[in-house]
Amino acid sequence: MVLKVAIAKAFQGEDRLRISLRSALSLAAPLAVAFSLSAPEKAAALPSFARQTGQTCSTCHTAYLQLTPFGRLFKLNGYISGGGGPYGASGAQDALFDPPLPIAFLWQAGYTNYNRGLDAPTGNYSVPSPNGGFSGQNNYVDLAQQASIFYGGKVYGNLGMFAQLTYANDRARVFGLDNLDIRYTGQFTAGNIDVLWGITANNNPTVQDVWNTVPAWQAPFLDTPFAFGPAAGTMLDSLASPSLAVGTGAYVFINNTYYAEMAAYGSLTPTMQTKLGSPSPPDPAFTIDGLAPYYRLAFAPVWGEHAFEIGTYGMFANILPDRTFGVGTNKMADVAFDSQYQWLTDEHAVTLRANYIFERQSLDATTLINGGGNGVNYLRNFRLSGEYVYNHMYSFTATYWQLTGSSDAVLYANNINYSPNSAGWVFDVAYLPFMRGGPKIWPWLNTRLGVAYSLFNRLDGGATNIDPINCPNCRNAKDNNTLFVYAWTMW
């Protein structure tokens, strides 16, 4: 059965889908540059997709942002699949307004509370101080934490697009183009082999991915913009911020099971990044010299109520540290492995995820600039996540993350252990009242109300005295434990 028929039957409620992932190579590089980005907020469960397909959000998402097999196939097919009537989801004849274009909107509000207030001065310890810093304050209420407008759906023929413009009321307070994924897709059959192929242009590695294991879409799915985090990070984690790289690539998805992708990414100039909405000045730490190849392979069978994926992805790049020319480049190699399992019924949804990124850093340029430090370092980022959703309405997610790596007295001089080692947990409980359809007057409304708590076992090399500049009043890792209460509405 060709994929076009499989998609049509899926919209009629058929249970037998299979999936994998997609994204990569050329065609729309100019489009990717034209749309590059700004504030890296995650968003994906678009009401415009519901209007276009005639499906409720629960068809594509266990609890948005997390995709089901049907949602992954919709994305791989380039956001172009139809099925909705003139009033979209549920044939809502009494809808107040049915937009002629696949436009959607997002509004996010939040409350952030730290286990211990931010003390001044902060010394060498980097703290995410809202509004330029607030000494001793321990609470932050933001009724307009993020606002976005989306174009999500078919553009013309087999060309589809997911594009997000965002105003982020965080430390940078910028407006610009956020996540972007433009696709042109097709299908053909050769004997018993069904092939879905696609060409994509996007503005950060892994944003084109369809599993919630990779950096662009992994748990926690919602976080305060004032969250703490380790100073170190792998290249793939860092480039998941959409303004730092643009790329094009090509992918194939064979027999709804086997996925392969190749792509190439490059960095925009700081001027272009700023014009497109990045904070000024933009972060130069991972400026790519030339083009960086990216690959993705996955095996992803679906049977009955079960879906499984195991795969690998990676990137290899020459990096100009802090955009410094004339000192050579650092050679970065990221190799990652991921897996996901889902058990999905009409009432219960269980998802288990694992992701591991290994990074080798050959720091020739950094060593020359700093006059010391290790010539070669390693980072290892490991993440486990489990989620349970009841009746598409109540979700609970638990995530454990761990970052370990080589000690370096120059690179990690911000802590007394000269170490990147960090670890912690994130717990999230949410209520989603409209996953099966919104109010009759506006059936595409979706809302997520939740509480998240981030717990740090250690941060930047230790559990205690992680801010040595300010000792004896220095901070411990647990001081940065963060409570985040949020409301997220899309329409």
Task: Please outline the helices and strands.
Blueprint: H1 3-11, H2 29-34, H3 47-53, H4 57-60, E1 61-63, E2 66-67, H5 69-76, E3 103-114, E4 139-156, E5 159-168, E6 174-190, E7 193-202, H6 235-239, E8 246-254, E9 258-266, H7 270-275, E10 287-288, E11 292-299, E12 302-303, E13 306-320, E14 330-344, E15 348-362, H8 364-370, E16 376-390, E17 394-405, E18 422-431, E19 446-458, E20 482-490
Antiparallel strand pairs: 1-2, 3-4, 3-20, 4-5, 5-6, 6-7, 7-8, 8-9, 9-11, 10-13, 11-13, 12-13, 13-14, 14-15, 15-16, 16-17, 17-18, 18-19, 19-20
Concise structural overview:
This is Cytochrome C. The protein is mostly beta strands.
Which features does this protein show?
491 residues; mainly beta; Porin; 16-stranded antiparallel β-barrel; two-stranded antiparallel sheet; 8 helices; 20 strands; 11% helix
Number of helices: 8
The rough form would be described as globular
The biggest sheet, with number of strands, parallel, antiparallel or mixed sense and barrel status, is: 16 strands, antiparallel, barrel
Distance between the termini: 35 Å
Strands side by side in the biggest sheet: 3-4-5-6-7-8-9-11-13-14-15-16-17-18-19-20
Strand tally: 20
CATH H-level homologous superfamily name = Porin
User: Measured on Cα atoms, how large is the radius of gyration?
Assistant: 22 Å
User: Would you identify the regions where 5 or more consecutive residues have pLDDT less than 50?
Assistant: 1-41, 86-95, 120-136
SS-based class: mainly beta
The fraction of residues in strands falls at 35-45%
